[in-house]
Structures are given as C-alpha cells and as structure tokens.
UniProtKB/TrEMBL annotation:
Pfam families, sorted: adh_short_C2 (PF13561)
Keyword Oxidoreductase: yes
Keywords: Oxidoreductase
Entry-linked InterPro entries: NAD(P)-bd_dom_sf, Sc_DH/Rdtase_CS, SDR_fam
Residue ranges that the Swiss-Prot or TrEMBL entry lists as coiled coil: none
Xref: SUPFAM superfamilies: NAD(P)-binding Rossmann-fold domains
Entry protein name: Pteridine reductase
Length: 246
C-alpha cells in the first residue's frame, strides 16, 4: 500500500504508542484521525503539531468507546473527514491489575470493552469503507495474550480475545481487508510506576536487556500497513526477545 494520502483512524492516539503511530504515519503522508477519551490537552497539542506540518491532515474526536453511540459516531466522523478510511489502528486500551478473587463486573466490562469489544465494533462499523479502499486493520495486542500476566487475569483474557479476533477477522474481511496485530513487550512502564528492582528483574528476562520505545511499535504498524501486502491474520511480536524467556 502506498500510504501517502491514506486516511487512518487511530484510537487512543493522544499519548504513548498511539501518538507515536500518529506521528510516524503522518510523516509518511497519511491523514490521521485521532481518537481520545480523556487526554484532551495532549490530543489537541498533537493535532495542532501535525496540522502545522500539513494543513487539515489531522483531526481529533473525544469518545468513550464503551458507549456504542459514541463509538459509531467516531467511525462515522472518521469516514467523512477525508472521504473514507483506509486504515484502522485499534490501540486504545485499559490496563490495570485485578485480583482474581475481587474482580468486579465493572472491571470485567471495562477491560473487555476497551481491549476487545470496541475494536470489534469499530471493525464492523468501518468494514465497508475499508473494503472499498482495500484497506487494513492493525490491532495492538500484547505478548501477554499468549502467556497471561500474573495479577492481570482480565486484561490478559481481553488481549487473548483480541489476538483471536485478529485471526478470525482476517478470514471474515478478506480478501479486501487485511487484518494483523502487533504484540508489544516491555515498551513503556505502566502509569502506576514500578519499582526499580522490578524493572531490572523484567529487563533481565529480555534478550536485548533493555526496554523498547513507542517508535518501535509504530514502525511495526507502518510495516504491516505499507509493506505487508501478502500478510494477514498474523501478530508481529516486538518485545526485544522477552518471550524467549517465558
């Protein structure tokens, strides 16, 4: 796919991996529709930054993707922004620990909703425009979809579901739409910061002995969009060799 002038919807685009994807894809000539939930300041700053580089190449919209009406509104607005969507990057994600004995229905709904339900229904809402444009979907999964993260059972279940969804949607939406995923390893530490000993212990189980950067994930996303015409239903692991030690 020649990505110049392609229209991309990125969920959770205001910060971290989402923002890195937005900047890299924009630098390749894409128009980027930036969804955010609560990070209004960061989203507006990013949108302004990109539009200064190329006028009317970035737009933003706030939405709670757990609300189906708001989710559909995002899909509709993104489709109308520049005349269709070529790429959907499902990046928005809730992440927090849940003790197995104390998991609430609200936590279950939030973690499954942001990591699995919203990506599915966005794919559904955008299926026609993606098919018309011979587009693609890239889901941001997690290495813990395959091997659950201790203390995070619901999050791990949700990401495992997203990995399964990536494969089945590749069948359901093919041949017009390719669907792939990227599974990050140790890229950014959680917002509720870990202690230094815990970080050191984690990095000792990474073959490259260092954490990655959001740009590493963005480059993998770009590859799957731009240079992977014969790849679908696959999940590209970007973890510095972390899963070699699981």
């Amino acid at each position: 796919m020649n990505v110049a002038a392609k229209n991309v919807l990125i969920t959770g685009a205001a910060k971290r991996i989402g923002a890195a994807c937005a900047r890299l894809l924009h630098s390749e000539g894409c128009n980027v529709f930036l969804h955010y939930r609560s990070s209004a300041t960061e989203a507006q700053q990013l949108c302004d930054e990109l539009n200064q580089l190329r006028p009317d190449s970035a737009r933003i919209m706030q939405a709670d993707l757990l609300n189906m009406a708001e989710l559909k509104a995002v899909a509709r607005a993104a489709s109308l922004a520049w005349g269709g969507i070529d790429v959907l990057v499902n990046n928005a994600s809730s992440f927090y620990p849940t003790a197995m004995t104390d998991v609430s229905e609200q936590q279950w709904d939030e973690l499954l909703g942001s990591n699995l339900k919203a990506p599915f229904f966005l794919a559904q809402a955008l299926a026609k425009t993606l098919a018309d444009n011979k587009g693609c979907i890239v889901n941001i999964v997690d290495i813990h979809a395959e091997r659950g993260l201790s203390g995070y059972p619901v999050y791990s279940i949700a990401k495992a579901g997203l990995a399964a969804m990536t494969k089945v949607l590749a069948k359901e939406l093919g041949p017009e739409v390719r669907v792939n995923g990227v599974a990050p390893g140790a890229i950014l530490w959680p917002d509720n910061d870990l202690s230094e000993p815990v970080k050191v212990e984690i990095l000792q189980r990474v073959a490259l002995k260092r954490s990655g950067e959001p740009f590493d994930i963005a480059k993998a996303v770009l590859f799957l969009i731009k240079d992977a015409d014969y790849i679908t239903g696959q999940i590209l692991t970007v973890d510095g060799g972390r899963t070699l030690f699981c």
